[in-house]
Amino acid sequence: MTLAQKPAAGWLEALPRSRILGEYSLWSADLANLEQDLRRTEAHADLYHADVADGRFAPSFLFFPDQVARLRTVTSKPLHVHLMVEGDIVLSQIRQFAEAGADLVTIHAENGAVVDDALDLIRDLGCAAGVVLRVETPIDALRPWLDRVAFVTLLGTAIGVKGQGLSETACPRLKAARALLREAGRDTAIRLAADGGIRDTTVPLLRAAGADTVVLGSLAFGAPDLASRTAWLHGLPAPVRTE
Prior knowledge:
- By secondary structure, this protein is an alpha/beta fold.
- It has 9 helices and 8 strands.
């Protein structure tokens, strides 16, 4: 039997704060050679990002628990599972992916009434929790859960569709979310992530707007020189704080 690997205790607090983080989206890996791509990129990734889609909440069908369990055996990097699923299955999906080895589970604010129970369940199962907003959802929707999450992710494109350009609202939304985190006293407790429309031309803009982490797809897995790409990412200047 292959034994699962896990990141060290305290992995979330240990993630660097002096630079932007690189989350590597497994949707952009070589899906026929996932293990090979994890081993190739592990030295550069801060964490791996697995999108889960049910064909209803998002128009795709994406990663399932057995895949994540298998990936858990080949990397000790944190695994972030982003659930793009309808509210009626979100609790069962949380259980399955936590059992498979997820370290961070993020759910959508648009799941509505089930979000409170979902965050409780994520915590009870020993995972870090986060909330995601679709690009059309007002930033103020985050308010009820800011004291219960470690990650906030803002989508910068329509949900579950690859290859789109970044919405013109993405950077203003990041700035608004950053202001909301400060207002709630959670600015240093929550990592603010940008997901969607991630290009070499947009990452500096997203970083300047307040992103702590970006979800890299082809920008990472398709990089001809991943070490240089990583150095470029880590070298981006921190946002200028304005009060």
